[in-house]
Amino acid sequence: MQYEQVTKEERVDLPRPSIDTGMGLERVAALLQGKHDNYDIDLFRALIAASEEATGVKAEGDRRASHRVIADHLRASAFLIADGVLPSNEGRGYVLRRIMRRAMRHAQLLGARDPLMWRLLPALIGQMGRAYPELIRAESLISETLKLEETRFRKTLERGLGLLSDATTDLVEGDQLNGDTAFKLYDTFGFPLDLTQDALRARGIGVDTEAFTAAMQRQKAEARASWSGSGDKATETIWYELKEKLGATEFLGYDTETAEGVVQAIVADGKAIETASKGDTVQLVLNQTPFYGESGGQMGDTGIISTDHAKLTVTDVQKRGEGLFVHSCVVDEGTVKVGDAAALNVDHARRSRLRANHSATHLLHEALREVLGTHVAQKGSLVAPERLRFDVSHPKPMSAEELKIVEDMANEIIVQNSPVTTRLMSVDDAIAEGAMALFGEKYGDEVRVVSMGQGIHGAKANRPYSVELCGGTHVGATGEIGLVRIVGESAVGAGVRRLEALTGVSALAYLNEQDERVKTLATTLKVQPADVLTRVEALMDERRKLERELNEAKKKLALGGGDAGGSADQVQDIGGVKFLGKVVTGVEPKDLKSLADDGKTSLGSGVVTFVGVSEDGKASAVVAVTDDLTSRFSAVDLVRIASAALGGKGGGGRADMAQAGGPDGAKATEAIEAVGAGAGRIIRFRLMAYH
Questions:
Q1: d(CA 291, CA 425)
Q2: Which of the residue ranges 108-117, 170-179, 435-444, 508-517 has the most confident prediction, judged by mean pLDDT?
Q3: Which fold, 353-512?
Q4: DSSP secondary-structure letter at 398?
Q5: Residue 440: how many CB atoms within 10 A of its CB?
Q6: 385, 354 in Cβ contact below 8 A?
Q7: How many percent of the chain have pLDDT more than 90?
């Protein structure tokens, strides 16, 4: 080491140039133990011996290198997993996956038929666990991760090697596998380039890496063109370009709410800029982040980003460009620029509420499936800090009793305070184990499977209660949810119902508010809170009785205190048919039919018409025809005459009773006269036809 690189253009001499000897732990141990090979030291001998015993293959000749790769990569993998790194397709997780898979490939070369590396973990912990207790604390996580990854990889390896064998049947030593075939193995079947090269190396066959790279670039160009096609997405091509340039943002938020990162890009008004100052509203992309980006219904995090020269408030985080976490920020202080190191702090209280609401959604979803049936599937959701809302497939409204049972079941799991566990699995394996995939979610080759609770009832008894594929954040134990309270159920479309619920402090506040309302109501009714329902039911019965009496009084008052049949001078004779017509006020439209029935009874034989006028000037008309006259008169035809006179259209019912309405109540008398005239025309027409 000779210089300090001050800027891209400026270097200064170090006061004391030095040499990096590479004297790491292994080389120091080799020197002290008199060895000329790092793999002969005590740190590796035990691991290689364990590998020999597990495979039944001696570390000699061509096999020696495989044992060494397994020992070295097992150690590296275990330490990375203990530090919180898990295999993935992005960032440091991808580095871990490649290390693991290279060792697993060599285990396969040694003839190991079952996953090997997890069985060697006890030897590693026995060797290094005392000096590195992190290995002991994370033993179960490391073991499960190694086993699951190798199980998945063996499927990929078996499929890829078969395809590779078919593709290279005609190749001989010195030939090259074409890059397009190597890319197809990678892109379609998940077989990495380095494994293809490794598998062909023993046969002396190479790979056209330039053509492989060209195929990769073509795919990116096609994806970019497809992604930026049209509409709103066409305005967001910058995110795809940044993703291609910077790679995906590494999400750290499953394990922490604070972290450090580097500002990789600043975007304002859809354009990349280098700096932003106080008062600016910008979007930041960092290499890694603990901030959750909105997806799966869960809202994005908020919080604070700080650099040496600036402080920003994060108001939202969204996922863009297939892997970027975009932080919407307001610069509160100073100036931020690309390349700045930043301290990232998620709003802990808000994240906690989001976690609780998200976990409660899972529990309610499973409870609904238990109560209503397995046809129930989530059709969308919103996980906000203050509430949760989710839509499920169900053909009819849920009863109050069903909702109570669902709520009780969810709270039974909450009070268990059982751990919420997550595992990384392939989609097929997860679904085979009973995990539910949710509507609207996009899943890659590898998914997080979230399990919570121990079942109590029926087929779920003594089994994991809720098991779902989910990329969101969740509580550490169900007890952190506190409680869940369903506060709403409604329809949002054909066959889809919407539930709204509260958890924790929000649910408690809701219940307290309801309790205060009951106490206030009890005071008003002058009873104990426990007697409120009985008192209200008695009042409702009394009200219904009074309403009936009032309606009867209104009818009599509307008829001038007489009966519905009217006085003799109110009944007309039209061609030998009795006709009663009357305008009434203060009578509800639904009560006009009962008036008309009374009129029919009083007349014995005839046609009755009542027009009621409401306070807002609108009118309702009812025409009734006694049974002996329905062959001559249709109440439907006559009521339509009344409706037309009232400025309305149509009307309907039966031949003996029909009802209609109109906006012009001032013409109520004209409507009755029109019905009478209509009845007269019918009589005259029939007489003419008779003669």
A1: 23
A2: 508-517
A3: Threonyl-tRNA Synthetase; Chain A, domain 2 (3.30.980)
A4: P
A5: 11
A6: yes
A7: 52
